[in-house]
C-alpha cells in the first residue's frame, strides 16, 4: 500500500503564503514606487530539498499562482521557474543541500536571474525602455535585500512544516523521534 506524499503540498502552501505576504508588502510600498520580487525563494527549497517529482509539482503550481497575479503573459513565470528548477535539480548533487546558508545563496542567484530575465522579456512593452532600467535596478537591489532578510525565516518555516508533518523532505519517509 502506497502512502500519500504531501511534500509538494506543504511547499506549495508555504509558497502561497510568501506570495500573499509579498503582495501585501508591495501594496504598502507602492507609495514609495518600489516593487519587491522574491521568485528565487519560491523555487529554491523545492529544487534543493524535494525529490524531482514533488519539487517540480510544487514549482509548477507556484509558477501558475505567480502568473495569475502578475502582469506578464501567462506562462512566463511558469516557464522561468521550471527552467531554474531544472538547472538547480541538475547541479544539486554537487553541493550541500541541507544548510540554510546555501539555500539562501541559491535563492539570491535565482532571484537575480529571474528578475533580469523578466526585465529583458518585458522591457519592450515599456513606452520608454531606456528610462525603465533605473527603476528595474532599484527594484532588484531592494528585492535582493528583502530576500536576504526574509530568506532564512522562509527556509526555516518550510523545514519546520516538514518536521510538523513528520516526514523527511528529501526521502518522504516518516521521521523517527
Question: What's the quick description here?
Answer:
This protein is mainly α. The protein has one domain: Arp2/3 complex 21 kDa subunit ARPC3.
Please indicate the percent range of residues in DSSP E strands (runs of 2 or more).
Answer: under 5%
Shape: elongated
CATH topology: the name is: Arp2/3 complex 21 kDa subunit ARPC3
The amount of helix comes to over 70%
In DSSP terms, counting alpha (H) and pi (I) runs of 4 or more, how many helices? 6
Q: How many domains make up the coordinates?
A: 1
Amino-to-carboxy terminus distance: 23 Å
Radius of gyration: 17 Å
User: What class would the helix/strand composition place it in?
Assistant: mainly alpha
What does this structure look like?
The protein is mainly alpha-helical. The chain has a single domain, classed as Arp2/3 complex 21 kDa subunit ARPC3 (Orthogonal Bundle), CATH 1.10.1760. Helices cover 72% and strands 0% of the residues. It is built from six helices and no strands. The protein is elongated, with a radius of gyration of 17 Å. The mean pLDDT is 89.
Amino acid at each position: 500500500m502506497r502512502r500519500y506524499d504531501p511534500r509538494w503540498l506543504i511547499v506549495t502552501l508555504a509558497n502561497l503564503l510568501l506570495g500573499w505576504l509579498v503582495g501585501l508588502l508591495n501594496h504598502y510600498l507602492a507609495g514609495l514606487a518600489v516593487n519587491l520580487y522574491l521568485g528565487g525563494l519560491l523555487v529554491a527549497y523545492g529544487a534543493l530539498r524535494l525529490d524531482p517529482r514533488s519539487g517540480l509539482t510544487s514549482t509548477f503550481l507556484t509558477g501558475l499562482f505567480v502568473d495569475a497575479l502578475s502582469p506578464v503573459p501567462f506562462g512566463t513565470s511558469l516557464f522561468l521557474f521550471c527552467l531554474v528548477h531544472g538547472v538547480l535539480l541538475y547541479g544539486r548533487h554537487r553541493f550541500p543541500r541541507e544548510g540554510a546558508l546555501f539555500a539562501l545563496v541559491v535563492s539570491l542567484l535565482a532571484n537575480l536571474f529571474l528578475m533580469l530575465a523578466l526585465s529583458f522579456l518585458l522591457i519592450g512593452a515599456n513606452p520608454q525602455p531606456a528610462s525603465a532600467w533605473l527603476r528595474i535596478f532599484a527594484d532588484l537591489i531592494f528585492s535582493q535585500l528583502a530576500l536576504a532578510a526574509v530568506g532564512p525565516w522562509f527556509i526555516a518555516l518550510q523545514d519546520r512544516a516538514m518536521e510538523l508533518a513528520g516526514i523527511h523532505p528529501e526521502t518522504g519517509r516518516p521521521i523517527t523521534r
